[in-house]
Design brief:
Shape: globular
Order of helices and strands: EHEHEHEHEHEEHEEEHEEHEHHHH
Distance between the termini: 32 Å
Bound molecules: NADP nicotinamide-adenine-dinucleotide phosphate
Structural class: alpha/beta
Strand order of the largest sheet: 3-2-1-4-5-6-11
Strand content: 15-25%
Radius of gyration: 19 Å
Length: 305
Amino acid sequence: MRIFLTGATGYVGSTVLDALLRGSHDVTALVRDPEKAERLSLRGVHPILGDLSAPASYAEAAEACDAIVHTAYESSKRGPQIDRQAVDVLLGAAIRHASRGQDVSFVYTSDAWVLGNTTGKAAEDAPVRPTGLVDWRPEHEEIVLNAGRGRMLRTAVIRPGIVYGGGRGIIADMLKNAADGLVRVIGEGLNHWACVYDRDLADLYVRVTTSPDGSGVYHANDEADERVMDIVEAISRQAKVEPDVRHVPIEEARAKMGPYADALALNQIVRGPRARALGWAPTLHSVVGSVSRLLEEFRSKRAAA
Ligand SMILES: NC(=O)c1ccc[n+]([C@@H]2O[C@H](COP(=O)([O-])OP(=O)(O)OC[C@H]3O[C@@H](n4cnc5c(N)ncnc54)[C@H](OP(=O)(O)O)[C@@H]3O)[C@@H](O)[C@H]2O)c1
């Protein structure tokens, strides 16, 4: 399949890229850095030099593909606005391609944080109650889902939990902090996090993108329902010297990190029956049960840097 991928150099997008290449898909990737573009082209990817905020740099390349997978996100104040523009441009490209009688799919990356604090187990049909950091996301999800209603176009929204593995992300930061001797936890740390292993998440992207039934919302998490303190304790046990754990009051965390603090303090029990109905079965079942492996991955990433 010819697939247009944004964010191929990022945490989520790079594991999606690995999975797409393993599946022998023909990948065109939007990349903003010429050196990174060069590295991707050595792996058989067709890089398009451009930027999400410059639609002319990528709209045509996206239109030429049978599927568009959007994982890029600019972490800046204009992030939501750029994402909205990119959604419009990429959907426009997909609709034009589909109107020529082609099967086209569009896969959008959202976030389990749109669910807010969950009550009971939140499956894909649960109402969204986004935490402040992602309060703009549900509108983008709706635009994507609406574009798929009644058209040839298949549209899907993937909501990953906190991604772990590959020595990157929030859990890798905790491993690093533990090795440095101090782990900070917001509040008591009795809140549950929804988490997903990066390669398992990538497998879901491939299934959703390539399956003729892949449309609608998909939750991606390992369903271990781990509390933050379960994760901290497991990580601490693996550290050479047991780290100190500092419980930071939410007000103090908010003053330092802004709305990101509230996202980390969310209590989430998330289920993904629609993802599992596609045959998706995560290979890693929890952070706690995978700490030694995650530490290995963290060390190899550091060694390679
Ligand atoms: N990581 C998680 O735990 C997690 C969990 C749930 C949802 N998500 C969502 O997944 C998405 C990706 O997150 P991530 O963790 O993979 O982030 P990331 O590692 O920061 O990657 C972001 C990617 O977007 C690209 N990018 C940023 N601004 C761009 C622009 N203006 N034009 C073109 N490309 C641009 C980056 O390219 P460069 O290499 O040039 O910087 C990079 O490839 C986000 O929407 C995030 O909210 C992530």
